[in-house]
């Protein structure tokens, strides 16, 4: 990574947790166990009644906003009002980068209502490059994009997801948020080798990772954010830490919260230890 690369200026953040109000008190009491927090941007948009809560979080922790509604792959221009609200949250947190999903959430006149995978074509890539550049210019910081789960491959793609990511980061200097659980889930549901997938990805552009636990439903592995991280995901992370100097890890847990929040903090600590060992190897 060259010195002028905007990703090179991103500091090491450590291991953290997705901020969820259901465990707010436990998070407040665990400043020694959580290196940084990830907030869902949309929860702090709009009215100013959440400003105090956001300010309190930022006083205690380094905070990275993570959006779910940008629709970075949309062919239509991005919503200017939405982008201004994103910028406000980004500025208030002082985050070194902003993260979102490589996905569609809107098409003209329709809110899809979920994170839909992109069609990996030349026109889609051109639109995504245009949108990433606009967001980064507005925010004045790198955009870091996450791989999503998908129920089926969109047919007639002109390139693989890994090639799409590679060409996108080359054109924009954006980064990657690798959701290790999403990669595992996709590899199980669509029968491919996740290690081979990583070999094709521009892993040097991975800034942060996500970890979570899912569940089985009708023979499909679902990204539920509701269970402990699966052993296979830890194994995949162990491989990844030998490839790239990760800046941070976030454990996502949105449902089925354990009675003892320490179960979550133990997973945060495990990720921290693995990333620290990997950084020592990669930097040696």
TrEMBL record:
This is DUF692 domain-containing protein. It comes from the Bacteria. PANTHER family: UPF0276 PROTEIN HI_1600. InterPro entries: MbnB/TglH/ChrH, Xyl_isomerase-like_sf.
């Amino acid at each position: 990574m060259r010195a002028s690369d905007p990703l090179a200026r991103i500091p090491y953040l450590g291991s953290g947790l997705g901020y969820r109000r259901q465990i707010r008190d436990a998070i407040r009491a665990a400043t020694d166990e959580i290196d940084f927090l990830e907030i869902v941007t949309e929860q702090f948009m709009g009215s100013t009644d959440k400003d105090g809560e956001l300010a309190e979080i930022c006083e205690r922790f380094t905070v990275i906003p993570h959006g779910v509604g940008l629709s970075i792959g949309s062919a239509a221009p991005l919503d200017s009002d939405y982008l201004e609200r994103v910028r406000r949250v980004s500025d208030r947190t002082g985050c070194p980068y902003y993260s979102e999903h490589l996905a569609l959430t809107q098409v003209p006149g329709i809110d899809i209502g979920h994170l839909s995978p992109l069609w990996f074509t030349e026109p889609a890539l051109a639109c995504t490059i245009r949108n990433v550049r606009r967001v980064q210019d507005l925010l004045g910081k790198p955009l870091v994009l996450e791989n999503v789960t998908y129920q089926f491959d969109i047919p007639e793609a002109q390139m693989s997801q890994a090639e799409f990511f590679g060409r996108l980061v080359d054109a924009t200097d954006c980064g990657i948020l690798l959701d290790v659980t999403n990669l595992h889930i996709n590899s199980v549901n669509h029968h491919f080798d996740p290690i081979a997938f990583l070999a094709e990805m521009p892993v040097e552009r991975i800034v942060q990772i996500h970890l979570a636990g899912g569940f089985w439903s009708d023979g499909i592995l679902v990204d539920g954010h509701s269970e402990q991280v699966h052993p296979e995901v830890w194994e995949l992370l162990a491989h990844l830490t030998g490839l790239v100097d990760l800046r941070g890890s976030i454990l996502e847990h949105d449902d089925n919260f354990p009675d003892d929040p320490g179960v979550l903090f133990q997973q945060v600590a495990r990720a921290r230890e693995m990333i620290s060992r990997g950084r020592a190897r990669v930097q040696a």
